């Protein structure tokens, strides 16, 4: 078992995630204990946070890896960011500006608003495909747009992959989100499961529970696909089966 996490906020003092090196260390230790061996932290690429600067995130990633190595924590870090999927993002899709996942950067983690509809979602995904960027859509179970019947399946047909927040299964975001996550999981719509870990406090309770619930629903083969095999393909810039 060697999971790969493609969505977290464990780099300190960049966004609303971990705020100190000690908190980053605690989060990394928790991930390792539960089976993760690689992670692509995804600071918010948003103007309200220091993480808006790609260079600052790259520098912090190097610092964090050095800290983990010095502490003997076997977690390998990769580049990543969480990007708002909007017209502004479409305007900056060069290899450096897209802020993709892993060294290839072919896949990018994108998110839609939690409480606003996005009627233009098909057009946004179409334009991403034309620019050879493959979208990994973060936590669709939490986004209002995916409450529309068939909308999640449509996104997959348009070339997007969907990422499950493990905390959704454990009820971290409420009962309605949990039910939505269970429906999408039953329909086989998720390609990746990730932690979206912001802080280690409390996660030592819900994260093991979430992994157990995932295993009950999809079995070991499903857990391996969502937490290991497909995340590795994403980092390598490969197509998903």
Structure overview:
- The protein has one domain (3-235): TIM Barrel (Alpha-Beta Barrel).
- The model has no long low-confidence stretch (mean pLDDT 96).
- β2, α2 and β3 form a beta-alpha-beta unit.
- With 241 residues, it is an alpha/beta fold.
- The strands form 2 sheets. Strands 4-5-6-7-8 form a 5-stranded parallel sheet. The chain has a 3-stranded parallel sheet with strand order 1-2-3.
- Helix content is 41%, strand content 13%.
Helix residue percentage: 40-55%
Total number of helical segments? 8
Give me the CATH architecture, please: Alpha-Beta Barrel
Mean pLDDT: 96
Order of helices and strands: EHEHEEHEHEHEHHEH
How many structural units, i.e. domains?
A: 1
In which order are the strands of the major sheet placed? 4-5-6-7-8
How far apart, in Å, are the first and last alpha carbons?
20 Å
- Helix/strand structural class: alpha/beta
CATH superfamily: Metal-dependent hydrolases
Which shape, going by the Cα principal axes?
A: globular
**Proportion in β-strands:** 5-15%
For the CA atoms, what is the radius of gyration? 16 Å
- For this structure, the CATH topology is TIM Barrel
Largest sheet: 5 strands, parallel
In the predicted model, the low-confidence regions spanning at least 5 consecutive residues are: none
State the total count of DSSP E strands: 8
Oligomerization: single chain
CATH class: Alpha Beta
């Amino acid at each position: 078992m060697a999971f790969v996490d493609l969505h977290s906020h464990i780099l300190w003092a960049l966004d609303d995630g971990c705020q100190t090196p000690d908190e980053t260390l605690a989060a990394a230790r928790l991930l390792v204990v539960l089976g993760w061996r690689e992670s692509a932290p995804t600071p918010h690429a948003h103007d309200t946070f220091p993480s808006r600067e790609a260079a600052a995130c790259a520098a912090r990633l190097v610092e964090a890896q050095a800290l983990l190595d010095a502490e003997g924590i076997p977690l390998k870090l990769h580049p990543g960011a969480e990007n708002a999927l909007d017209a502004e993002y479409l305007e900056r899709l060069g290899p450096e500006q897209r802020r993709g996942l892993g060294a290839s950067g072919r896949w990018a983690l994108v998110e839609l608003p939690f409480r606003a509809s996005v009627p233009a979602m098909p057009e946004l995904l179409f334009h991403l495909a034309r620019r050879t960027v493959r979208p990994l859509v973060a936590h669709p179970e939490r986004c209002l747009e995916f409450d529309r019947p068939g909308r999640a399946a449509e996104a997959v047909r348009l070339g997007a992959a969907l990422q499950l927040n493990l905390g959704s299964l454990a009820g971290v975001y409420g009962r309605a989100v949990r039910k939505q996550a269970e429906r999408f999981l039953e329909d086989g719509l998720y390609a990746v499961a990730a932690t979206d870990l912001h802080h280690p406090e409390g996660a030592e309770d819900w994260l093991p529970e979430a992994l157990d619930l995932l295993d009950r629903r999809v079995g070991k083969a499903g857990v391996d696909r969502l937490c290991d095999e497909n995340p590795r393909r994403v980092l390598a810039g490969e197509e998903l089966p």
